[in-house]
């Protein structure tokens, strides 16, 4: 069976989301390989509609993907609009946030179950190469942006009387240079109020996300000796870790797959009392509703218009706030989208082959042992994972 090469880029409906799963550059490369690319108009996307039109994409109305031909895969980034339980009979490529038993995960994946036999979720978070490494991820820019927002939150807090002020609405920056320039301008406020150079601690420093956080801190003017770079070797003894409480900003960049001892806890914070320096926690991993979250001091995601949430129960020492924005890379949407889409492109080129192979068994589960090793393996593995999670949902 010859599978038509096509993709439908949907708009992003999440507030303040400016990134795109495809860019005009990668769309053009797909078109050059025989793909038909349909792009929904999107006023908040960092790339203008005309940029896609100029490279040969077909533009359609905003949020019209439900009318797409059933055989055309729908590609996007963030979750679909909430409060919708309608069936999803299309193939969707996206971050669905329902494979680690996050809050409401059963309702999310049930929509594809209701869309059988044609419905399928290829979750971008779980597209992996033969070594188990994600083929495309926003990790670097997530860490970079997280460190930036954490530094800005610190500056706003310590720069106010009684540390009562909080960081207000933040907006996307046109490029890394502009972001670094602005944050550098806030460093003098931090140093003046603290009476010393600020200190940061990054957990997961050897990964893409952690490298991004460390790179930002260095670029913004943190001294290298004041950036604690932790990874598995430093955390293997198990938390809570008092060293975290000695930093001014703590950035969590780990990819959580199982329960581990908490990095910090209400009890460890209380025990530190007035000796605690920690004021801002940035949870880039943002597993807010994950029962295994190693930072059990907050319970909500923050947003671009309200970037921080106060930690409750603080009775001594300075106030403490948490940044838990789950789409931090959109602070640098053009660069983040370019990097992600470029990494995803080789896998997208093999998608038609995977869809053609799936077509005869539409609606029938496959297991990991049936994935094989062909160029379309990344999609078959994601397909097997979909059926595995769906089975877990139905077994509960």
UniProtKB/TrEMBL annotation:
GO terms for cellular component: cytoplasm. One of its GO terms (biological process) is lysine biosynthetic process via aminoadipic acid. It catalyses: L-saccharopine + NAD(+) + H2O = L-lysine + 2-oxoglutarate + NADH + H(+). InterPro entries: AASS, AlaDH/PNT_N, AlaDH/PNT_NAD(H)-bd, Lys1, NAD(P)-bd_dom_sf. Its EC number is 1.5.1.7. NAD(+) binds at residues 133, 207-208, 231, 235, 255, 284, 325-328. Residues 179-324 form the Alanine dehydrogenase/pyridine nucleotide transhydrogenase NAD(H)-binding domain. The active site is at residues 78, 97. Pathway: Amino-acid biosynthesis; L-lysine biosynthesis via AAA pathway; L-lysine from L-alpha-aminoadipate (fungal route): step 3/3. GO terms for molecular function: saccharopine dehydrogenase (NAD+, L-lysine-forming) activity. It is an enzyme of class 1 (oxidoreductase). The keyword Glycoprotein does not apply. It holds the Pfam family AlaDh_PNT_N. It comes from the Eukaryota. Belongs to the AlaDH/PNT family. Monomer. This is Saccharopine dehydrogenase [NAD(+), L-lysine-forming].
């Amino acid at each position: 069976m010859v599978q038509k090469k096509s993709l439908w880029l949907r708009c992003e409906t999440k507030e303040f989301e400016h990134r795109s799963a495809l860019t005009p550059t990668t769309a053009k490369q797909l078109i050059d390989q025989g793909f038909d690319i349909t792009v929904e108009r999107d006023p908040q996307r960092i790339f203008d509609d005309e940029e896609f039109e100029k490279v040969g994409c077909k533009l359609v109305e905003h949020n019209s993907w439900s009318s797409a031909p059933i055989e055309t895969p729908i590609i996007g980034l963030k979750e679909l609009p909430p409060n919708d339980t309608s069936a999803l009979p299309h193939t969707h490529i996206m971050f669905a946030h329902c494979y680690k038993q996050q809050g409401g995960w059963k309702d999310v994946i049930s929509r594809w179950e209701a869309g059988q036999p044609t419905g399928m979720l290829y979750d971008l978070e779980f597209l992996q190469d033969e070594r188990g490494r994600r083929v495309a991820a926003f990790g670097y820019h997530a860490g970079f942006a997280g460190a930036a927002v954490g530094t800005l939150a610190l500056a706003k807090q310590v720069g106010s009387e009684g540390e009562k002020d909080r960081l207000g609405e933040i907006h996307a920056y046109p490029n890394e240079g502009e972001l670094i320039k602005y944050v550098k301008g806030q460093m003098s406020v931090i140093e003046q109020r603290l009476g010393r150079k600020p200190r940061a601690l990054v957990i997961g420093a050897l990964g893409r996300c952690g490298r991004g956080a460390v790179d930002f801190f260095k670029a913004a003017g943190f001294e290298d000796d004041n950036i604690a770079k932790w990874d598995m070797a430093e955390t293997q003894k198990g938390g809570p870790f008092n060293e975290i409480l000695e930093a001014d900003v703590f950035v969590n960049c780990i990819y959580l797959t199982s329960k581990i001892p908490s990095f910090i806890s209400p009890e460890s914070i209380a025990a530190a009392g007035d000796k605690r320096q920690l004021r801002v926690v940035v949870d880039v991993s943002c597993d807010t509703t994950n029962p295994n979250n190693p930072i059990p001091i907050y319970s909500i995601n923050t947003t671009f218009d309200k970037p921080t949430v106060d930690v409750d129960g603080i009775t001594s020492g300075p106030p403490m706030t948490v940044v838990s924005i789950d789409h931090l890379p959109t602070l640098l949407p053009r660069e983040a989208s370019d990097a992600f889409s470029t990494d995803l492109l080789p896998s997208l080129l093999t998608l038609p082959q995977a869809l053609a192979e799936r077509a005869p068994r539409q609606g029938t589960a496959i297991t990991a042992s049936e994935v094989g090793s062909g160029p379309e393996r990344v999609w078959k593995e994601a397909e097997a994972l979909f059926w595995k999670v769906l089975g877990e949902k139905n077994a509960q």
